Amino acid sequence: MEKENKVEPSSRTLVTRELNVNVVGMGIDTLELGYCIEKYDTAFKVLEDAKSLAQSKPYDNDLGSVKFYGIDFKVNRAGKPMYEFVLQNGDITIAINRRAAGGRNFPEIHVTLRSEYIWRVGWQIAVKAVTIWLLQWALISSIKVSRVDLALDLACPIPVLELQQFVTYARGRTDHYQIDRHCKGKNLTGYSIGKGDMSCRIYDKKNEINLTKKTWFKHIWTKNGWIEGEPVTRVEFQFRRAMLRELQVNDDRDLGYLVGDLWNYAVTKWLTIREIGSHGACNRMSNLIDWWLFIQSVKFGCITGVTRIKQLKPKYDRSLSHGFGNLITALALQKTSLGLPTKATIARFRIIVKERFFDNPELAAKVEQRASKLGKMSDK
Questions:
Q1: Which end of the chain is more exposed for a tag (fewer CB within 10 A), N or C?
Q2: Which pTM was predicted?
């Protein structure tokens, strides 16, 4: 608990007189997990009754109450897409689909660990506690990490920046890269960068906690040297499932090993903030601003050197489907031209494919050549 909330000495010493910046908080702020369930060892009658009770009340925001396997929850009057029951309390939100299929279509249970719970006990202890509780009434086959938010709180004002200083290394159209500046009146409140599978927010955290009433953050900051009245700027990166897979984070064990790599990728590859040159230019070759150099120096854990790998499975599935379609067309053309029975047509075609394709001495070389080209395409 103390280790999660308290900044490691190696990070707290990363303070420069010139920048006057101090790290007062760092860690995972939000975590969403998908639990794949082989079978349930419970009847959901108690949840059905609580949901019906919520629906009998006059207002949409009315909730039912239930104690489910020793934990108190509020039950939503409606579920959400793919999930029949939605339970929540101050620590977690849990969505349940009661048709267990081992996660073949999607995780049957979706759990969101709330920010206060994670900062209070630490994300690994929180995941362990939730998993042990679930095992009382469900057989878990695997756990998938679907969202991770990494947060760094700095005792300093928000830097005033031009939008062109934000330089991204995001690849491909699916990153939906965009930058916005946010203000309240004449006061700068923050920036948002990107949307979709990965995004970043840099914003006035003190202003945000005044709006959300998350004043418990001040206790964490104070333990790390924050003085009441000092401004706090948060740098926060959100990773969703598709990006996590590309960065080789699939389950909670991967996250434990690679959280340092996630932060390092975010602040050195996906996003940098650079100086505007004498001619008004700013690109990947421009110098980093000192503030961002400081952020890059903060470590969330050991760095293993993991690299981002674009997921090619959808392209593989599509190519396989097209290949089968072409084979069927070729079979149909052969049957039409030769007039043979269907079984004889398939037997004849099997011989032709074996001779011309699988027995082709150049097949291995052609596969290597094509794989090389695909590898270069995936890096673009």
A1: C
A2: 0.76
Which tens digits make up the pLDDT trace of 77-98?
887 899 999 999 999 999 999 9
Q: What percent of the chain has pLDDT over 70?
A: 86
Which string of b and e fits 255-276 if b means at least 16 CB within 10 Å? beebbbbbbbbbbeebbbbbee
Taken as a whole, the chain contains a residue count of: 380
Q: What angle do CA 87, 92, 97 make, to 5 degrees?
A: 40
Contact yes or no for 179/245 (Cβ under 8 A): no
- 79: helix, coil or strand? coil
CA distance 205 to 184: 14
Residue type for position 62:
D
255-309: pLDDT as tens digits: 999 999 999 999 999 999 999 887 777 888 888 999 999 999 999 988 888 777 7
37 within 8 A of 102, measured Cβ to Cβ: yes
Q: Give the burial string for 156-181 (b: 16+ CB within 10 Å, else e).
A: bebbebeeebbbbebbeeebebebee
| Residue 239 clears pLDDT 90, i.e. is over it | yes
Single-letter residue type at 217: F
d(CA 275, CA 258): 30
**CA separation for the pair 253, 249 (Å, rounded):** 8
